[in-house]
Amino acid sequence: MLKATHLTLFLVFTFLFVNLASAQVKDTVLKPLDTTRAIPQKAVKIDSSSRRQDTAKVKYINPGKIAGRKAIFKSLIIPGWGQLYNNQLLRDKLNARGEKTGHFWQKTYTLGKVGLIYGGFTLLTISYIDNRNSYKIFLKEAQVRAFNRLETDPTKKQPVNPDLVRYGDTNVTEAQAIFKRNTQIVIFSYFAVYAVQVIDAYVAARLNFFNIDDSVALKVTPSLMSNPNSMYGFNTMPALKVSLRF
């Protein structure tokens, strides 16, 4: 009887143990562990050396453009400075080629342009002073004559300019307008000469770096061109053929 009781208890504990183990296995299969919560995630650092890097392209630098900007800047500050700067550029270019004969003529040409610039400014200044003085003389004469025409008291009338007695009132007014217009033209000419010397300095600076070698050629030859619409029955007509090789 005792053995039967022990056997019964053993079977009950065995049954309970098997059921507990089976339930644990099923719960593990149905509910997998959340590994994202259990294991902290670390930031993955990308190795930049492993990535393919594009080779940087070498930026093209135009020396003529840089020289042109410098020539403009110098000419804006002092008229003629850009021309002297271009002369220095050409001198360095000739020295690099080993040419010594072109220095004298290039220097003479540059100094000639600078002389023309300041000669033009000098002539314009003289013309401005002369026209301005003449304008003031005729303006004063016109004012005196206008005042004398309105003044009834002879004792209060102002004396006229003896050098302008031969001019009538209309001539005085016209001369005043002419000298005033000439003064305005001279002022405009100042700006024109100033702008021309800036443009000349820029163009010369760019041309110093303009490459012309044996690979560039321009050829103009006489030729014949077909003309189907000719009214005289000729299918060809003379023409010029221009060939550019570079």
Helical content, roughly? Answer: 55-70%
Question: How many β-strands, per DSSP?
Answer: 2
Sheet with most strands: 2 strands, antiparallel
SSE series:
HHHHHHEE
Mean pLDDT: 77
Terminal CA distance reads 123 Å
- Secondary structure class reads mainly alpha
As residue ranges, the low-confidence spans are: 20-31
Strand order of the largest sheet: 1-2
Give the percentage of residues in beta strands. Answer: 5-15%
Shape: elongated
Determine the number of helices (DSSP H or I, runs of at least 4 residues). Answer: 6
How big is the Rg?
Answer: 49 Å
Q: What would you say this structure looks like, in words?
A:
This protein is mainly α and about 250 residues long. It is built from 6 helices and 2 strands; from the N terminus they run ααααααββ. The protein has a domain of about 150 residues. The chain has a two-stranded antiparallel sheet with strand order 1-2.
